[in-house]
Queue: 3 jobs
Job 1
Amino acid sequence: MNKLIKEKLIKGDSEDQQPDRYRRKILSGLGALGAGLMLGGCDRLSNNKAVQQAVGSVENLTRKAQRLVASRQSLAQEFDASQIAPVFRPNGEINPQEADYRQMAEGQFVDWRLRIDGLVSQPMELSLTQLRDLPSRTQITRHDCVEGWSCIGQWTGAVLGDLLDLAEPQDNARFVVFHCADHTFGGSDLYYESLDMIEAYHPQTLLAYDLNGEALPIANGAPLRLRAERQLGYKQAKYVMRVELVDSFKTLHGGKGGYWEDRGYNWWAGI
Ligand SMILES: Nc1nc2c(c(=O)[nH]1)N[C@H]1C(S)=C(S)[C@@H](COP(=O)(O)O)O[C@H]1N2
Ligand SMILES: [Mo]
């Protein structure tokens, strides 16, 4: 990132001259992001003006988002390390055979990119390294599957709200859709899921790349999966390839906002 811009960011050009801890973390993450993107030669994002604009709006958006989530901000229970299950039980698709996915998996996902697009002002593509360079959160939570089993695991990942702030959701964005790499049970539809903006900005909503301190296994969604800790298991999209902001589900697959929702499950899966 351009040195002048970085200085300006760290000093702050608004009323707040003393950057708080959160802001510093975001900025340092963004510094890494900027550098990584330049290495990657992504014109759109290494463009200083764009990065500058993205950063300028982070605070406003964060403030807006915080106001938005105030009434639904309660946290899911977190557990002790001693309660982590030795093996996190895998379910649904556990080994995607799609050719694109196989190829990326064989290359240790170095060619994998997360796309963030749709109703955002700064669409972006991020490598796994870039995601790992952003501020992270680690949490030990219980996953509850509607099939009647639960499992406790430790997840580490990028906070989805931080990523959304970088991409700058437009005012008409109402839902965040997660597009996956797999056709569950060989169906014709790719797995997908969605959250509303409040759930997407919940502090425990992560795009996780580590399970129990190690890179996410393929069975549990490598290289990246959603963790929305106050929601049931089918919401926890694995093999996430693309995050799309939309104002409606109408044009997506069955129109109900998720693979299982299209097959009769409730869209609202709050626990
Ligand atoms: N892409 C994708 N995500 C998915 C599924 C799937 O089949 N494909 N199954 C869902 C269901 S029903 C559950 S219970 C959890 C299982 O996650 P796990 O394999 O890590 O236990 O993933 C959810 N996310
Ligand atoms: Mo599930």
Note: The chain has one domain: 2-263.
Job 2
Amino acid sequence: MSIFTKTQQEIAESIESDAVIKDWKDWRWQFRNSITNIEDFEDILNISFSEEEKAELKKTLEHFPMAITPYYASLIDISNFKDDPVFKQSFCSSNELNIQKYEMGDPLSEDSDSPVENITHRYPDRVLFHVSNMCAMYCRHCTRKRKVGDQDHIPDKDTLQKGIQYIKDNPQVRDVLLSGGDPFMLSDSTIKWLLEEVSAIKHVEVIRIGTRMPVVLPYRITDELAEILGSFDKLWVNTHFNHPRELTDSSREAVKKLVKQGIPMGNQTVLLAGVNDCPYLMKTLMQKLVKNRIRPYYIYQCDLSEGLSHFRTPVSKGVEIIESLRGHTSGFAVPTYVIDAPGGGGKIPVNPNYVISYSTNKVILRNYEGVICSYKEPDSYEPVFCDRDCDECTLELKTEGTEYLPPVGIEKLMADNEEETSLIPSDNERVSRRS
Ligand SMILES: *Cc1c(COP(=O)(O)O)cnc(C)c1O
Ligand code: SF4
């Protein structure tokens, strides 16, 4: 009875008068009965919108689909639904049609950095592989709204094959992120096939699955699926909890199944105005995640995707949140706060400033309490010129399989064996005048 709450009972019965606990916990039943239109939402949750509101909401639905599992809907506090974090994340809003000049369809240029359909290859050693474009619940804040839920973008097995071939052909790819959409929208057998294919590629050392299933449809994590996933040694799972209220008995049970299989779990949170833009709430969320053996990985600043301005906070809110975590709670409960660079530069960490000043042999730092201290640097440190000839180096990096990748960016400016002394934008006028 503790899993099947009163609200769940009521919702289940308003969907099907003879629905029983077994149905509620059957992910197929949940999926079949997902709430995709406003009238159903009103009926099932016993809420009503004015005709005017409804007309606006319907306009939104013409652009971005809605799907709310009965399970996720049952987490909404009906007495105050307009402020409810679950409602705000899942129920369409006319604000989504309010598009700002600086917003973009594809702010992270995922489609431009795409060598083959469904692969985004941004970083040297890892790729993002879009294996599904469906989700059990369409997050209103989704950065990939342009694609997700769109029937024209569903990858078939042929397209997936092309992605797998790309990974095979590119030995520098040692880390593959399966994302989408939600990879767990695929059938167990397709997931198994995909994982077999990718993990059989010798140079792939890590496979990560990004999924929101433990949050929005935890019953999808069946014993069978957990067992399939548990059989792949290279696998990590990253999920997407945004609010402590989402960590219910059911979601904890789903997470536990994966953890019991020995799968390391991480979490990515999106910082959202009116949902989780509160240091105290975030600390509670991070501690609850850790308690369930999920390592908080990233907090994302909300991307510049179209129609998300009502969800965005200033960057300072994210810094304030990290300020309230670092030192105040377990180090592994502190995620990295990042801005995913518009234009495709990748994730850029943003931190509070802890270094106050430097002298030639001291660094002046401050801690989370505001205590200021000096760290004395060594009086003698002989920098060793590094020519990247590791065979001759006293540090004896003689591990097999460590491939030398030439340095890029700031790393290149720092390298002893590189000539470059500056990074210059390609359209620099001053440099273009040089003959
Ligand atoms: C986030 C992301 C990755 C993974 O980045 P990590 O910092 O390693 O988690 C890889 N590719 C793309 C395109 C991404 O957006
Ligand atoms: S689960 Fe992920 S991909 Fe799906 S709608 Fe939410 S944020 Fe977008």
Note: Residues 384-435 form one domain.
Job 3
Amino acid sequence: MPFVKSKIVSLTLIILGLVFLFSFYHRSQGGSYFPLIPATKPSVPPSENSDYVWAHVPQSYPVRELSRLPQSIPKSIPIIQHSFPHESREERKVRIARLDTVKGNFTHAWQGYKTHAWGSDEVAPLSGRAQNPFGGWAATLVDALDSLWIMGLKDEFEDALQQVEKLDFTSCSLEELNVFETTIRYLGGLLAAYDVSGQKYPVLLRKAVEVGQMLYVAFDTPNRMPITRWRFHDALKGVPQEAGDGVLVAEIGSLTLEFTRLSQLTNDDRYFDAIQRIMNEFDSQQDQTKLPGMWPVVVNARTLNFHEYSGFTIGGMADSLYEYLPKQHILLGGGSQQYRKLYRDAMVPMKEHIFFRPMTKGADVLFPGDVSSDGQTPLSELHTEAKAQHLSCFAGGMVALGAKVFDLPEDLDVARKLVNGCLWGYETGRLGIMPEIIRTVACEDTHNCVWDEDRWHHEVNQAFPDDNGSVEDKIKTRRLAPGITKIDDGRYILRPEAIESVFVLYRITGDRSLAEKAWVMFETIVKHTITDIAHAGLNDCTVDDPPKQDRMESFWMAETLKYFYLIFADPHIVSLDEYVLNTEAHPLRRTV
Ligand SMILES: *[C@@H]1O[C@H](CO)[C@@H](O)[C@H](O)[C@H]1NC(C)=O
């Protein structure tokens, strides 16, 4: 009976681990945020498989002293969710009908994956082909596990676990693995499925540990900074590694939640230590950048220069670095003040230079833009590009969460305007969907901004200097809504960020108009993206008959449909007072 035996072995290891932990309990040192302990803790955490090859790849640059997970402080995190009033019978009826419709669409996509691509990373929603762009470890399946559980699809969930059992993280369909994507989708997906299902399915933690052990090898570099685009097969052979000299901050700066949760669940501090080293670099150089408080999009992880480059954004390539600051504070249960400081200092330049008010016919909203600094120009003259990415639509949720967690009530107003910005992006979209990237006219005065048709026309003309014809022609042929000067990228690839922020703000404020707007978004998106097999991204959502892509990214079922579902679910389901959601919408259980 191997099952029982392995339980006894695990139990013994847990006890040994606890004894060991307690022997170092009082050895904390002052001076740094996290006490350091010698790295001589048992290297085999409770659920680890000792035959696993990644566990035996020798570390060339072993850690000498580990940062230890800080003790969380009970009641240090303010209540986040709104106290929702009792709903009427009629309200409940509408809500449940919507919930079922979202679930019906989720099931439709799940069946398409199951029929055509079971065990592969993705199903192609037009051709039905199976595709493996994420290593070939069933990305869609792993990413959707917690959604299955949350939506009450328990049989499907248990079916999927048999596939999880078979996942082999010692072989990979790619030469180069994206460590960030692997962390947020696979590690986050497995940990969250383990947490939301009440920690009753040990295979999920076992597989999460396997992913963690694999990824931990990417940190085996001279300065312990991880390689973000990682040559999997070379690493398996033990080829010496060095961190990259041009690394995207989102990829190196948002591994914190998943690695922290893994340490919490295994009592193995190595994972937390691995990411804490990164965040200490961000911390120590936060004031030295060309936009102090924020970090450039690209940093040099090889030389540990995190301040030199010039481009600043909270959109793609940087986004989740910022998103994870308040979330990591919550997951650590207020046991550290470091993430409060990082967030607070980042918000100052963000409010001043990144958030801008677009000129609209009446809506007082905000978008996050981009800032480029040449390092010479004084900060007060920095130019904000009035560009809005769908990816940056997470910002409303981040600012709303930060407002609650760090008790900054005036920020809730900023959060509302950011959410309304993306809703404006949807409402002014040709089909009712916001494209990937749009350009707008930035108001000169945020507090006083009236619609100026000439200025809009002027900027449209500037955006298309080579087009013949009148400005009216340009607006017509380019399908520009009032206030929009150019559509840089007209795709809609089933992204979640706008509904994510609507969800967070709704759970925080209880504002029912948000749920109504969410419903309109849902119906519109589904109408244009549904296929016989599943749902498909749109190549251009600025035309009436949008051409579909043969692709459904795993975040559609992991994030977009989950957020739609949760908006219409009982607010106690995945309560923000019990869970922290990673950047792939995977709910990680809070310890306090
Ligand atoms: C999917 O959503 C659409 C739009 O609301 C709805 O009409 C349809 O019935 C849903 N599909 C399923 C299978 O529930």
Note: Residues 1-31, 40-46 have pLDDT under 50 and may be disordered.
